[in-house]
Amino acid sequence: METVKPGDTITTGTSIRVGDLVILVEVSPNQFVQKAISEEEAALYSGPKYRVYGTESRMTESEWLGSVRLDEMLGFLHSKWIERKQISRKLRLFAVACCRPIRHWLSDERSIRAVEVAEAYADGLMNQEELTIAYDAAHDAATAASQAAHSCATPHAWLAAYFACSSALYSAIEAMGSSVSSTWHRRSTDTLRDIFGNPFRPLPPRPEVIAPLAEQIYAGAWDQMPILGEWLQEHGYWSEGEHCLDPNIHHVKGCWVVDWVTGRE
């Protein structure tokens, strides 16, 4: 069988069903169509792909906490929070976080601008028109790293999350070889957990008194996370403080603890 290329229109039927493997094909600027593909075609397809999930949860708490399958985790979030507007901001920040490690591979200023605009848009500092302008300007970039940046500014938050992570992985493989794949999958799923926390456990009322420190952290003072963590544990928020103090976690903008304390959840 001929190798399937990114953007090829391939389908195994006229309807998309729960459980299908799917690719997203851009049929016109900012317009995407889902195309179902077989397992065999998926093995040959070199672009981003994901599995369709239904309206019911398909993950347990232990699976969420230990998963290295980004497609499954994003699919679960989609089924759980499809009606919540707040998730779009977090998905956008996840896309941005996927691009930060490959920042040094972005040689095109339009690509760099797309990442910055996407983050500002997530924070409500730029509007849809400005996001679209940045997306269109970065459209012609050819490298995988630039495609990751371009994906950040995709008007649709779900597509931004899927495509930015996938393209960033491809750029890392191009630069460092296929051995980086497993490390990247672990890093991206850990980042998703840093942003969304544990969806199976509701958060207590936020401690507003410490919100000014959390706002400083959100603005970039990530070295203050241990101070926030210690304060939280001293005041009875043990698991929330533990997240802040864990030396193995690389915190990013959108971190669930910081969002919770600042009232962004």
Structure description:
The structure is a single chain. With 265 residues, the chain is mainly alpha-helical. The chain folds into three domains: 1-52, no CATH class; 61-196, no CATH class; 208-262, no CATH class. The chain is built from 13 helices and three strands; from the N terminus they run E-E-H-E-H-H-H-H-H-H-H-H-H-H-H-H. It has helices spanning 39-44, 61-66, 70-81, 86-99, 109-122, 128-137, 144-152, 157-176, 180-196, 211-218, 225-234, 238-245, 256-262; strands at 21-28, 31-37, 50-51.
List keywords for this structure.
13 helices; mainly alpha; three-stranded antiparallel beta sheet; 3 domains
Topology at a glance:
Layout: E1 21-28, E2 31-37, H1 39-44, E3 50-51, H2 61-66, H3 70-81, H4 86-99, H5 109-122, H6 128-137, H7 144-152, H8 157-176, H9 180-196, H10 211-218, H11 225-234, H12 238-245, H13 256-262
Antiparallel strand pairs: 1-2, 1-3
